[in-house]
Amino acid sequence: MAPSLILSSLFTLILSSLLSSPALAEPNATHHPRHPHRHLRSLHFSLFQHETINKTGYFIVPGVAGPGVSQTTTPFGTMFVFHDPLTTAPDRASKLVGTSEGTSITSGLDGLRSISIAKISLRLRNHTGSLSIVGGTHNVKPSNHPIVGGTGDFLFVQGYVTSSPVDLVGITVVYKLEFHIYWPPYA
Ligand SMILES: *[C@@H]1O[C@H](CO)[C@@H](O)[C@H](O)[C@H]1NC(C)=O
Ligand SMILES: *[C@@H]1O[C@H](CO)[C@@H](O)[C@H](O)[C@H]1NC(C)=O
Ligand SMILES: *[C@@H]1O[C@H](CO)[C@@H](O)[C@H](O)[C@H]1NC(C)=O
């Protein structure tokens, strides 16, 4: 074979292998649906969290700066740990369907904001398992906490939990938790 023919067949070989490689193929439009979330399974509901100081929630590490402990503020660096009941209505005597256990560390120099981590265990009519949430919490305004995952019937879920103060007066404070849970297609 003439050297030029060897070169040209080599070139053809390389070119055809490049063209048939998946990386260079035309993207298949069916992999990019226009509305990818239309058929996601989801669940939306609200519960109420009851936190009683020195009973279901304790200050573990005192803060070091900023305002003192009040109904709405805690000093910067305060570490609080809780294990609170979750009920279906604002009334503590309403049906108990879960617990929220976690910690919050005051990270706002104004004493109003903290970083919260929680494991929320749920026993709902059709779903049992836990959700793990993490995010910033504002003491007097609603906060969105991204759901980073779950266990049991909530394995692989994503979404968010909006936490809003309902009653901050007295030794038991009440928060409303609004759950927006989405199962990815592979769950
Ligand atoms: C995309 O891929 C699917 C499944 O592999 C195939 O049936 C379809 O014909 C492809 N569409 C195009 C435009 O190549
Ligand atoms: C909670 O316990 C701490 C430490 O014993 C005490 O200083 C604080 O006053 C208690 N708070 C309430 C609201 O009972
Ligand atoms: C619970 O599951 C049953 C059977 O799968 C279904 O009929 C019912 O609508 C579900 N209830 C809720 C609140 O999702």
From TrEMBL:
Span of the signal peptide: 1-25
Q: Which PANTHER family match?
A: DIRIGENT PROTEIN
Q: What is this protein called?
A: Dirigent protein
* Entry keyword annotation includes Secreted: yes
Gene Ontology cellular component? Answer: apoplast
Coarse class of the protein's main subcellular location = secreted
How is the subunit organization of this protein annotated in UniProt? Homodimer.
User: What is this protein's function?
Assistant: Dirigent proteins impart stereoselectivity on the phenoxy radical-coupling reaction, yielding optically active lignans from two molecules of coniferyl alcohol in the biosynthesis of lignans, flavonolignans, and alkaloids and thus plays a central role in plant secondary metabolism.
